[in-house]
Amino acid sequence: MTTTPTTTPRSTNQRMPVVYLPHGGGPWPFVDLGLPPGEKDGLLAYLRSLPDLPPTRPRALLVVSAHWEATAPTVMTAERPPMLYDYRGFPPETYALTWPAPGDPQLAARVCELLGSAGFATAADPARGFDHGTFVPLMVAYPDADIPAVQLSLQAGLDPDRHIALGRALAPLRDEGVFLIGSGMSFHNMRGFGDPAAAAPSAEFHAWLDETAALEPRARDQRLAGWSSAPAARQVHPREEHLLPLMVVAGAAGGDRGSAAYTGTYMGKRIAAYHFVAA
Length: 279
Prior knowledge:
Protocatechuate 4,5-dioxygenase, Chain B; 9 helices; single chain; 279 residues; 32% helix; alpha/beta; 6-stranded mixed beta sheet; two-stranded parallel ribbon
């Protein structure tokens, strides 16, 4: 995507955090999936707490969802993004859910500018809507839908180093009032969700992930780039698209160490959210 230079928003002295969160399965908060009450209530409580994390109200949200992959990193540019119901087999009412947050074409252009300066080719999608990796958790966290929001895709090929670099390029947005959210699932094995034997590999992988997030940045990023060598890695993520938003978040974190800010279970398997907050 070729963009004209944007006016860089004025920096603030209140750096935004970066967050990797679990978005659950499909429209889970709005339909009965048979989740135990403790699982559902725990994740709901975490998502409702999310607006308390930034030191001030964000001017915009930038979401990297596991449910959008493109050849080049692609941003949505619609002023009024539509809804994208990218799930199947749920009751009719789940296809009438709305989260009418405005888009932010200026932020989309700024994202492309930063990525272009870092050597990334970029693209824009004026028709793209909010997929469930964005609208489901943010309907819970920001139900008023009154903060502009932009989605950014993953890059096809799913290279972890590339996504860490992408996050590094976006780091200046943290000082421009933009709250960067990586939306995925730290356990994402569809067959494993129904298999009690997958609980142990999930716990093993998450112990590694908790330790990795808290490391100093260089060691953290090296371990994340080699995530597939972690204990039980491919049992937990047969395909890594739901983990890669964490790579983007870690890249944008820079020198800020991370921590597991929420831990719980989903269908009996360990899940976690990771926060990176300026000291």
